[in-house]
Amino acid sequence: MDNVTLFCTDGKSVQSLLEACKDFGKASGAKIFGCWDLCKEPLPFPIEAGLVKILGIWFADQGGAAAKSWNERLAKVKQKLGFWSLRHLSIEGKALVLRNDALPVLQYVTQAWPLLANVARAVNSMVFHFVWHSKMDRVKRTVMHKEQRKGGKAVPDIPTILRAFFVCGSIGITLLNKNKDHSAYRVFRFFQLPV
């Protein structure tokens, strides 16, 4: 094992974690940070409160983690689109760049956080500024999102795709784990979605 990140909500879950670590240590001979007797803290590992970055996504016990995660990804997409805007691409080429280069960067965050309304607006304006190189649209956005065979330019509707990806992922987690103590189940019950 290399790095493991766990969220503990109370003292009971910390005790369960320590017991699992002891059992794992007996079975494998591995220990957390070497000898536990040398630790001066009550737990043999550091405790983080506030913002914690795990695999590029921010988490926190208070608010603000989702916005920070989205803002970092938006900056990365803006940089990528800036590089691509130096090339003279057709609208179809720009749609391809959006689909294959920008969308995956944003899609990664939707595994943990839903799309925020202000982020959706920022993504839309970023996309169409990239397509037209100005703030003014030359063709209606609804037409741009249509497939080419229906008279559009197949520019991906990134906010809708991101929302769908988040909802599908949440539904998948809920269907796989029908345990009523699971957090995804509680989220769906909160929004009164059928499970």
Folded structure, characterized:
The chain is mostly helical and 195 residues long. It has 2 domains: 1-47, no CATH class; 65-170, no CATH class. It is built from 7 helices and 2 strands, in the order αββαααααα. It has helices spanning 11-28, 65-85, 91-107, 117-132, 141-145, 158-176, 183-190; strands at residues 52-54, 57-59. A two-stranded antiparallel sheet has the order 1-2. β1 (52-54) and β2 form a beta hairpin. α2 packs antiparallel against α3 and α3 runs parallel beside α6. The longest helix is centred in the middle third of the chain and has 21 residues, at 65-85. The radius of gyration is 22 Å and the shape is elongated. The model has no long low-confidence stretch (mean pLDDT 81).
Q: Which strands sit side by side, in order, in the main sheet? A: 1-2
Total strands: the figure is 2
* Number of discrete helical segments: 7
Global Rg? 22 Å
Task: Assign an overall shape.
Answer: elongated
- The percent range for helix content is 40-55%
Low-confidence spans: pLDDT under 50, at least 5 residues? none
Q: Please give the domain count.
A: 2
SS strand fraction: under 5%
Structural class: mainly alpha
Order of helices and strands: HEEHHHHHH
| Biggest beta-sheet profile | 2 strands, antiparallel
- For the terminal residues, how far apart are their CA atoms? 35 Å
Give the overall average pLDDT: 81
Helix and strand topology:
Blueprint: H1 11-28, E1 52-54, E2 57-59, H2 65-85, H3 91-107, H4 117-132, H5 141-145, H6 158-176, H7 183-190
Antiparallel strand pairs: 1-2
Helix pairs in contact: 2-3, 2-4, 3-6
